[in-house]
């Protein structure tokens, strides 16, 4: 209704607005104006009555004035020439004796958003800045920012900026905060408002007089201030201490951020602050304001990244209630997953198990993935729970459990046996593409341990014609070929049928190409197939990539209390246009380059691998599992076989080094934390004859060199030399990347 | 800063739209206000499609559409959305939206579509005063009253004008000068909501009380108030001298996990002496908010017993026990016992109150008007089920409860509230004070 027939309506309203009888009766006049505004809100074009509305602005009735000004601010950009007519009235109102009228007129004038209005508003704004009523000053100060916005990229008016800086001393708290906001916008090109020592101290003293919005904003501006001395720094922290307990969560968060940033160099102060905000944060997490609770939970997760044990004793606070909204439940499950430790793991898993059978499929899947996450540390318990869940024979549960198993087997090879035992029978309860792919992958890679694997795959091959997802077909091809390598007798026939189908009948090009590729590969010979398809079945080191170990507080302190924790770092990077540099903490290794080195070994490393087979016939065994205890015992019992010093520059990027060593089958047993001095690492490797190589890396940054100590359990010179050359190459390449 | 504020009804129609900044895309402003054809492509419309009309549950109260963040809060079936392109802090935006809701509620009561439509002029006026260029300005309801002219036909009288000036220059933002009452009166409400999550075996999984002390003050002048309660820390401090008093009162004192105060409370004094002193705003305000987790008096115990008899029958027996002084009466008790989706019929027998099976809600709702302390009551129900071939096991949702009791489940007691006004001639004794305790159920669930 409101979208149609607007012309008649405009005509009618126009008539009413012009009617002298209505104009005489204030209430009726106001009613007509209200109707105009109502239609405007509903999306009707009301710009037709602009002229009449301008006339209506010349009134003493303040309610009417407000309505008309609201109308004018909306339509002025469409009717700039007519709007100029209203300027006169507005200017007159700017010198009205009533401060409220002055403020209103000034605010409306600054919000007109049309070209050419600047010359009219400049003088009223300047007058407004010196008005005796603070209400008008508040408006005028923000008016400066609006005026600057209208000008666009025009240059900054120095006198105005100075005037605003002096108004920072105004006695009205809102004027002070508005000044900061205004200066920030005007000086955006030059990096925003400058907070020097006198301003910072002035603001600190005024803090308690401000309202919650002001406090939150000023805390944000104070981030820019760099105290000169340690003493001053701690004075500021003491002064702001009470804001950590403010009743407004946004002030608490703002204060927390300020503390974290100011105490950048004092990790113990940072930890202390995080302990102190624990209470307020927990209160926010269990508050009745759902949305605030959500925001708080996001920040709790952020803190947990650095201090995993921080909320462990309060784990029960993060148990979900049945009636909570979906988004809070999902966040809580994530939090539970991160704060798990030896003491509470039993209870947390028990609780998560309860969620798995929740009516909301979405939530139950999130809970299952969470158990999968915990399984990386507490494998046995979790695998048992997941296996029990399979017994429920529910489609939406089974598919997620199988996907979790797939990821788990890759990261924690020790659970392969249990997973393989649990798998038979689940194929009946999987319908969706993701679940099928996971199941097929598992059957292909670990098929030799699952007795009925060929028969399950056979079912899939039988039904391949009715399969709708190409991805499932591709997975099936690869899995069947892999299984064929380990159990040829049972698979040969159906592999033939599948290849025939894919090449002759399949319509999806990708699937067809994959089929052809495998067919041709088989023609080349079985050894070539093995070389290509028998890749490692698991890679525990990837776990590190998945969730990088404890991040230092400083890496996220600057993101605290922004949208970054709410959206997640990765998503925020895609949202914000200016992604990159600003949001990366300096301490954080560049994750992008990491990903590439994970998937596509960098150039230098590739060479080392190819060198390997012919470098003194040394073959290091992949997936050597050596416990730290055993390593220590052996290390102490052996003599040093070789010692050497290599050049090294800069800090150690532990993960890169570990990745590179992994590539040449050298296992990392233990490493010091990044940045520790001296930095140490212990490595182990074993060749195909069973000879163990134990290595210590010692880095002393002052000398800019790395010391290598190798011990060997069987004294054999030639293998030792080739091992050392491998190690040299790796360390050489990594060292070069850094420099 | 906030780029714009929109209020939608449950159908996704825009009831109120106020754009403060152009950066949220002029197409938002244009389409929402001018042309209906381009409306289809604007982010505001995208919000309707992606959030209000979304089939699944809302995944986050912060939604990003076309690089614009939408922060939404839902009150009954009204959606309030703040829109911004900047990297703002989420807590502040949500707090602002809550404040906005409070302010609107203070002016016209419940936030409903009808109320919003009837008061849209007022809402625009409020939006104008509370936010300027997207920055929050004055948002105290009391202080706002002087600026908002809902029924102000006349241009203002001299007195009112001077009021504005004193208000805008005054030192205290939350109270204006020159308030006079013939009768100095104050009302103190201790409102608590007790939350419980209990295992089927009767073990408390988590319990906490979140409470508020709400004060309504009708006091003349600039009175200085001091509020005291049975806070464990205070009582132990005082009791140091006389040891026997500690043992006597120690039992009744409570440990507060954390508390926050209205802006008017002097925090420095609270930190040093743990005394709560303040100059109250005029009218109603929330003095403090607190949370306790220890020694909570759980007003009701729910003991569920569910037995499956074969595949088509379910026997449910639920006992509730009230656990407080026999002289007190709990009110508005409601127990909600969920039933499986394939329920075909229910027979209920209860000793007290009324119980009914509500098929649309999949639950037996048992209502009892009043119940004294230390009593117990039970309900038994036979639920007949339709045989289904759905192998899905019934994921028993918890039994939830609602009630209202006339005491504070945290054990909080108001010890005193003293009023001093040195300039006017009334003393603490002349002030009439009323104190009331109300404990309500928050999320009070027992798993079965």
Fold blueprint:
The complex is a heterodimer of chains A (739) and B (448).
Chain A (H helix, E strand, L loop, with lengths): L5 H13 L1 H5 L1 H16 L8 H7 L5 H14 L4 H14 L5 H12 L7 H12 L4 H18 L6 H10 L5 H14 L10 H10 L5 H11 L7 H11 L8 H14 L4 H10 L1 H8 L4 H17 L19 H13 L6 H12 L4 H14 L4 H12 L4 H17 L4 H7 L10 H13 L7 H10 L7 H17 L1 H17 L4 H16 L1 H8 L8 H5 L6 H5 L6 H4 L1 H7 L15 H9 L3 H9 L16 H10 L2 E8 L6 H10 L3 E5 L7 E8 L5 E9 L4 E8 L4 H22 L1
Antiparallel strand pairs in A: 1-5, 2-3, 3-4, 4-5
Helix pairs in contact in A: 3-5, 4-5, 4-6, 5-7, 6-7, 7-8, 7-9, 8-9, 9-11, 10-11, 11-13, 13-15, 17-18, 18-19, 19-21, 20-21, 21-22, 21-23, 22-23, 23-25, 25-27, 27-28, 27-29, 27-30, 28-29, 29-30, 38-39
Chain B lengths: L3 E5 L5 E6 L6 H8 L9 H10 L9 E4 L2 E8 L2 E7 L5 H19 L4 H6 L1 H11 E2 L2 E2 L4 H4 L13 H12 L15 E14 L5 E15 L5 E6 L2 H7 L4 H7 L8 E4 L5 H7 L2 E3 L4 E10 L7 E10 L3 E10 L6 E10 L4 E8 L3 E5 L4 E10 L3 E10 L13 E7 L8 E7 L11 E15 L2
Parallel strand pairs in B: 8-23
Antiparallel strand pairs in B: 1-2, 1-5, 3-4, 4-5, 6-7, 8-9, 9-13, 10-12, 10-22, 11-13, 14-15, 15-20, 16-19, 16-21, 17-20, 18-19, 21-23
């Amino acid at each position: 209704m409101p979208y149609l027939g607007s012309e008649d309506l405009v005509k009618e309203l126009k008539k009413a607005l012009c009617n002298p009888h209505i104009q005489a009766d204030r209430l009726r006049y106001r009613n007509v104006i209200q109707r105009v505004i109502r239609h405007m809100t509903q999306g009707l074009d009301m710009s037709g009555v602009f002229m009449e509305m301008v006339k209506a602005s010349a009134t003493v009735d303040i309610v009417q004035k407000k309505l008309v000004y609201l109308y004018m601010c909306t339509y002025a950009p469409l009717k700039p020439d007519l709007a100029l007519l209203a300027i006169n009235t507005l200017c007159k109102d700017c010198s009205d004796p009533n401060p409220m009228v002055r403020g209103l007129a000034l605010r409306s004038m600054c919000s007109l958003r049309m070209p050419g209005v600047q010359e009219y508003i400049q003088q009223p704004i300047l007058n407004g800045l010196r008005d005796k009523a603070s209400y008008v000053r508040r408006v005028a100060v923000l008016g400066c920012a609006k005026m600057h916005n209208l000008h666009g990229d025009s240059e900054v008016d120095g006198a105005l900026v100075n005037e605003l800086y002096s108004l920072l001393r105004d006695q009205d708290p809102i004027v002070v905060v508005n000044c900061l906001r205004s200066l920030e916008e005007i000086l955006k090109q030059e990096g925003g408002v400058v907070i020097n020592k006198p301003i910072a101290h002035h603001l600190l003293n005024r803090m308690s007089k401000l309202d919650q919005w002001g406090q939150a904003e000023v805390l944000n501006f104070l981030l820019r201030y760099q105290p000169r001395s340690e003493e001053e720094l701690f004075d500021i922290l003491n002064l702001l201490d009470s804001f950590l307990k403010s009743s407004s969560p946004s002030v608490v968060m703002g204060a927390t951020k300020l503390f974290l940033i100011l105490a950048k160099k004092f990790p113990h102060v940072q930890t202390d602050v995080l302990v102190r905000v624990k209470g307020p944060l927990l209160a926010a997490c269990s508050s009745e304001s759902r949305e605030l609770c959500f925001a708080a939970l996001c920040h709790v997760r952020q803190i947990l990244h650095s201090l995993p044990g921080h909320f462990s004793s309060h784990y029960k606070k993060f148990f979900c209630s049945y009636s909570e909204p979906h988004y809070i439940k999902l966040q809580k499950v994530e939090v539970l997953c991160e704060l798990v430790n030896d003491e509470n793991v039993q209870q947390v898993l028990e609780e998560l198990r309860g969620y798995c059978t929740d009516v909301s499929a979405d939530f139950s899947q999130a809970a299952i993935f969470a158990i999968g996450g915990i399984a990386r540390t507490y494998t046995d318990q979790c695998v048992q729970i997941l296996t029990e869940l399979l017994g429920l024979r529910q489609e939406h549960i089974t598919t997620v459990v199988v996907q979790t198993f797939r990821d788990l087997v890759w990261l924690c090879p020790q659970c392969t046996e249990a997973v393989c035992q649990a798998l038979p029978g689940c194929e009946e309860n999987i319908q969706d593409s993701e679940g099928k792919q996971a199941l097929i992958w598992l059957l292909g890679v670990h098929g030799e341990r699952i007795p009925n694997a060929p028969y399950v795959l056979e079912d899939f091959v039988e039904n391949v014609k009715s399969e709708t997802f190409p991805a499932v077909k591709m997975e099936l091809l690869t899995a069947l070929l892999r299984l064929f390598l380990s159990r040829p007798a049972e698979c040969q026939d159906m592999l033939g049928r599948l290849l025939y189908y894919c090449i002759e009948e399949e319509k999806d090009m990708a699937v067809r190409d994959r089929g052809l590729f495998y067919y041709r590969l088989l023609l080349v010979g079985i050894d070539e197939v093995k070389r290509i398809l028998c890749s490692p079945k698991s890679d525990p080191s990837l776990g590190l990539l998945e969730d990088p170990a404890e991040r230092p507080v400083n890496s996220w302190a600057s993101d605290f209390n922004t949208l970054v924790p709410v959206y997640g770092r990765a998503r925020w990077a895609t949202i914000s246009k200016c992604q990159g540099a600003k949001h990366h903490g300096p301490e954080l290794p560049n994750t992008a380059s990491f990903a590439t080195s994970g998937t596509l070994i960098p150039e230098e490393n590739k060479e080392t691998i190819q060198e390997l087979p012919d470098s003194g016939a040394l073959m290091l065994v992949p997936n050597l599992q050596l416990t730290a205890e055993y390593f220590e015992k052996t290390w102490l019992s052996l003599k040093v076989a070789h010692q050497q010093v290599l050049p090294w520059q800069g800090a150690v990027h532990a993960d890169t080094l570990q990745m590179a060593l992994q590539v040449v089958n050298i296992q990392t047993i233990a490493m010091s934390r990044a940045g520790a001095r001296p930095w140490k690492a212990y490595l182990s490797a074993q060749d195909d004859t069973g000879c163990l190589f134990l290595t210590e890396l010692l880095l002393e940054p002052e000398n800019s060199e790395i010391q290598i100590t190798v011990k060997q359990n069987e004294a054999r010179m030639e293998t030792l030399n080739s091992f050392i050359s491998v190690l040299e190459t790796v360390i050489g390449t990594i060292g070069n990347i850094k420099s | 800063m906030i780029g714009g504020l929109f209020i939608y009804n449950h159908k996704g129609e825009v009831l109120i739209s106020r754009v403060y900044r152009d950066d949220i895309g002029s197409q938002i402003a244009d389409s929402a206000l001018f042309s209906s054809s381009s409306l289809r492509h604007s982010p505001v419309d995208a919000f309707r499609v992606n959030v209000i009309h979304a089939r699944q549950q809302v995944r986050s109260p912060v939604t990003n559409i076309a690089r614009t963040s939408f922060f939404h809060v839902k009150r009954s079936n009204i959606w309030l959305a703040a829109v911004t392109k900047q990297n703002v802090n989420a807590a502040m935006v949500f707090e602002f939206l809550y404040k906005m809701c409070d302010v609107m509620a203070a002016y016209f009561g419940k936030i409903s579509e009808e109320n919003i439509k009837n008061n849209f002029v007022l809402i625009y006026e409020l939006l104008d005063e509370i936010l300027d260029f997207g920055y929050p300005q004055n948002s105290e309801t009391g202080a706002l009253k002087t600026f908002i002219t809902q029924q102000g036909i006349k241009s203002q009288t001299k007195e009112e004008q001077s009021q504005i000036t004193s208000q805008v220059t005054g030192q205290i933002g939350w109270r204006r000068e020159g308030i006079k009452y013939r009768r100095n009166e104050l009302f103190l409400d201790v409102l608590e909501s007790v939350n419980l999550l209990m295992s089927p075996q009767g073990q408390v999984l988590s319990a906490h009380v979140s409470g508020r002390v709400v004060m309504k003050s009708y006091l003349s002048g600039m009175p200085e108030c001091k509020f005291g309660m049975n806070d464990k820390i205070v009582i132990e401090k005082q009791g140091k001298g006389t040891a026997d008093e500690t043992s006597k009162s120690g039992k009744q004192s409570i440990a507060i996990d954390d508390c926050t105060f209205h802006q008017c409370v002097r925090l420095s004094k609270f930190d040093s002496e743990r005394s709560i002193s303040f100059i109250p705003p005029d009218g109603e305000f929330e003095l403090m908010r607190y949370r306790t987790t220890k020694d909570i008096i759980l007003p009701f115990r729910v003991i569920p017993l569910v037995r499956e008899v074969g595949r088509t029958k379910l026997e449910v027996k639920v006992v509730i026990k009230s656990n407080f002084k026999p002289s007190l009466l709990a009110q508005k008790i409601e127990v909600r016992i969920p039933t499986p989706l394939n329920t075909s019929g229910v027979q209920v027998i209860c000793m007290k109150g009324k119980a009914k099976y509500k098929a649309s809600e999949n639950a037996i709702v048992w209502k009892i008007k009043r119940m004294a302390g230390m009593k117990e009551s039970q309900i038994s129900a036979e639920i007949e089920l339709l045989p289904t071939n759905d192998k899905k096991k019934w994921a028993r949702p918890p039994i939830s409860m609602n009630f209202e009791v006339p005491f504070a489940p945290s054990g909080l007691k108001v010890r005193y509230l003293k009023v001093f006004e040195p300039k006017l001639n009334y003393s603490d004794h002349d002030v009439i004070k009323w104190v009331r305790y109300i404990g309500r159920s928050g999320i009070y669930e027992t798993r079965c």
